[in-house]
Amino acid sequence: MPFDGIVTKCIVSEMNDLLSGGRIDKVFQPENDEIVLLVRSKGQNYRLVASANASNPRLHLTTLQKENPSTPPVFCMLMRKHVAGGRLLDISFHDYERVITLNIESVNELGDLTVKKLVVEIMGKYSNIILLNSENKIIDSVKHVDSDISSVREVMPARIYILPPAQNKELPENIEVDNIFNEENVEGAKHAEGIILNTVKGFSPYTCRDICSAAGVPSKTPLNELNESDKEKIKTALSNYIDKIKSNNFSPCIVYEDKSLLRPIDFYCFEPSKEVFYKSYDLLSTALDQYYLLRDTNERLGQKMGDVLKVVKNGIDRCKKKASMFNEKLREVSDRDKLQLYGELITANIYCIPEGAKSTKVLNYYSENEEYVDIPLNEYKSAQDNAQKYFKQYSKAKSTHLNVTKQQEETLSELEYLQSVLTMLENCSSRLEVDEIRQELIDQGYIRRSLKNGKKKQDKPSSPLEFVSSDGFQILVGKNNKQNDLLTLKTAASNDLWLHTKNIPGSHVIIRTERNSVPDSTLLEAATLAAYHSSAKMSYNVPVDYTTVRNVKKPSGAKPGMVIYENFKTINVTPEEETVIKIINNKNIPGK
């Protein structure tokens, strides 16, 4: 969710509890727009980060220790001069504005106690970190805003600090919920969420949508379509939301893309009301730190994955172009049998064809209807030579068809393999998984083996995903093609069930049967996981084949993950996220 007034209130409350009265031991500036304060408070050491980054402005505790520049920036030197060794009196914010003030008591050059203020403005691209003296004059800031940039509000050394323009809205504590739909509040609002956004201070559009969701009213419902029941539901949801804020009854969490809890979608002050992958935290600060740490890790993972992804996508494009070219060649020789027919009909009628004829019309004795066929001839060649010409053309076309068909099959097989690699790569959630796929592509000759670093120490292989069905059966899901081979050909017993999406790249899925009959509910859950871990995860009615492992074979020379199977059945499933979450959250003990 955005770093709105609600997040600001939650963070300020947490920081006051932990840091008020603490001593600022050190100051660092690892980035041009980021300050880190090392605070000793209540017997604990804390690392407080304040960022004015346009994309990710924030204030929270962090465990991340970034490398600092060898020469501290000017702002960092000023911070050390004015606040290092000082005492953090308190942390405050005003009227749900995204402006946080750290009040710091320190000793000046004369030995007198003075109070400095470190102001953190969290406002997107206008975010800033500003150091003030006791008279509210600006000592310096990480971003200077002169009159050329803003004629309304300068942020320059020696200027008096002026707060950003305030929102003309009511504080959550002062809102009279029963009057939320009064005429003066409705003015300018078009939808259900708009009425809350226009009225309550500190609420972001996300918060307003969340309140509508809790009320069971679509947030984009036009105001003139809201009935009295809808309005009452919104009032109740808003009242409950405000009560939580008033009492600081926050329940921070991070919502993730999947069970791995490695790809965060967003952070929230309150636990979600619908079924999603999420993890709760005692402190919003901890959630924020984890969220931004994982985002940074995933960005780095994306960079690491980039060259591998490029190799795979280039390979897929190459295969598609080759397949298209082969299709065109096959189309060109699709009438090869006609060439043989022409040769045979000319030979059968060789004495009836006059010299110099440009064409001949003869009976097609292969036709059940005894049709006549017009055959083009080269007038400068004899009938015999014309027949031989057609036989040679047929022989060449037949040879082309055989060769191109073989090449086409090889190309389509390679395309299927690379598409499966792409699916696995897109599902990677760790450096190890990317490295395993990179090694697979090296082994298959798609990436050149690097010798400059010598023999690399092998990491412990990653493990397949493990789930438990509602009936207590263990379900295993491969995360890459080598793992698929190991899972199907080595790990699984011959009477275990094997599942895979039909003609769609995806993971091998195994149900460990322990020689027990598999209930339909377990089969459905395993098929859902197979569809979810495939390139059809966003599709409906995905066909999934299943059979016993004994019916699955790997052809000699086949690429990793490529198998053939027989005696199978097919089940259609839709891999809805809520269904997958329920399977993931199942706590039954595996085994029967």
TrEMBL record:
UniProtKB keywords: Protein biosynthesis, RNA-binding, rRNA-binding, tRNA-binding
MF (Gene Ontology): ribosomal large subunit binding; rRNA binding; tRNA binding
Keyword hit for Membrane: no
Signal peptide bounds: none
A family per Pfam: NFACT-R_1
Domain NFACT RNA-binding intervals: 466-562
Function: Key component of the ribosome quality control system (RQC), a ribosome-associated complex that mediates the extraction of incompletely synthesized nascent chains from stalled ribosomes and their subsequent degradation. RqcH recruits Ala-charged tRNA, and with RqcP directs the elongation of stalled nascent chains on 50S ribosomal subunits, leading to non-templated C-terminal alanine extensions (Ala tail). The Ala tail promotes nascent chain degradation. May add between 1 and at least 8 Ala residues. Binds to stalled 50S ribosomal subunits.
Name of this chain's protein: Rqc2 homolog RqcH
Organism: Ruminiclostridium papyrosolvens DSM 2782
